[in-house]
Amino acid sequence: xxxxxxxxxxxxxxxxxxxxxxxxxxxxxxxxxxxxxxxxxxxxxxxxxxxxxxxxxxxxxxxxxxxxxxxxxxxxxxxxxxxxxxxxxxxxxxxxxxxxxxxxxxxxxxxxxxxxxxxxxxxxxxxxxxxxxxxxxxxxxxxxxxxxxxxxxxxxxxxxxxxxxxxxxxxxxxxxxxxxxxxxxxxxxxxxxxxxxxxxxxxxxxxxxxxxxxxxxxxxxxxxxxxxxxxxx
Length: 233
Prior knowledge:
Diaminopimelate Epimerase, Chain A, domain 1; 9 helices; 9% strand
């Protein structure tokens, strides 16, 4: 995923400023490299693969063998032979499980593999959760007319989230934002988040201007226009 250059950030800031000139609404853009480190993913995959080790052994034709015995063997000798065979099989299975767990965890920790094996639903949940956290942390709910709109982008996941404050949500149906989010998502999929951001900001500005037009002489800029860059979690 292409990251945002200084020129990209300047262009997005200019787009926000131009959009807000026509509306009393506020557009606030936040970008993060990722919304979570998804530490549980390597562990989950490693545990799942390790649990398959008995099936792997069976598929490979490994089985517990008991030495042949003759009539001269006592019952204690037979019992001891069975116990030894089962113990060896269990030790081998445990060793294989430990090895599979370690190797799988190390492989899934590799960034490309980690991204590919992280479930999409988990990514979406984390992106939405962190977007909501940023909405509150940046005080978007404290604009004068409750007309703040957060556009949140998570680059590694190539996902975006839009949250509108109650002043906007009470007048604009959620599906109205679909076109803006589609433009942003398309830019993320193409690896061009700057272009997607610019298109989304412009479309959001049109929606806000239609419902909350700027008031001549009374249109304060309540939130910064610059893109906020968050650190990786």
